[in-house]
Specification:
Layout: H1 10-31, E1 37-40, H2 42-49, E2 57-63, E3 68-75, E4 79-80, E5 86-88, H3 92-108, E6 114-119, E7 125-131, E8 138-140, E9 145-148, H4 153-160
Parallel strand pairs: 4-9
Antiparallel strand pairs: 1-6, 2-3, 2-5, 3-7, 6-7, 8-9
């Protein structure tokens, strides 16, 4: 019996903790891949300011019909899955009116608007966004289907009243 070593519970606890930690790390790494998102863009901002209706895009608005909370353009080849965005037949004149109303309203209370590229989970541009909010949730449902959450009504109301910077 003189050669036997008694280790006790410590090595088993260490081994279990190491394996569990590795499993959690692998699970998180799988979830941490690239995600669809907005990417703020001066070029997109200027296209909205210049009333440029991009060819090959379908346009949507959310909020009030004549004074929207956001304008979204989705490239052909992609389908917007939503019940909260209204598709609009966009013309340069209508875009100029909508952007002008949004600019007037939000600049009066000290907020500027932002233009952003809508990127899929591979980092490819699949649309454009214009709103006082420069963030939202973008999710790819499939290779060609996307959901884009409208801006938060609570945040928009707060900004319309001049609050929530």
């Amino acid at each position: 019996m003189g050669n036997q070593k008694i280790y006790g519970p410590w090595p088993m606890t260490f081994l279990f903790t190491a394996v569990a930690g590795l499993a959690v790390a692998m699970l998180l790494a799988g979830c941490a891949g690239p995600s669809a998102r907005l990417d703020r863009s001066q070029e997109v901002f200027e296209s909205f300011q210049g009333s440029q209706v991009l060819p090959g895009h379908r346009y949507y608005t959310t909020g009030m019909v004549n004074n929207p909370d956001a304008i979204l353009g989705v490239a052909d080849g992609y389908t917007l899955k939503t019940e909260r965005w209204k598709e609009r037949e966009m013309t340069p004149d209508l875009l100029r009116q909508l952007v002008g109303r949004m600019d007037d309203e939000f600049s009066a209370v000290g907020f500027g608007l932002a233009g952003s590229a809508v990127l899929n989970d591979k980092g490819e541009q699949i649309g454009i966004w214009y709103s006082v909010m420069d963030h939202t949730i973008v999710q790819m449902i499939s290779e060609t289907e996307v959901t884009v959450s409208p801006p938060s009504a609570v945040e928009i109301r707060g900004r319309r009243k001049g609050g929530q910077r």
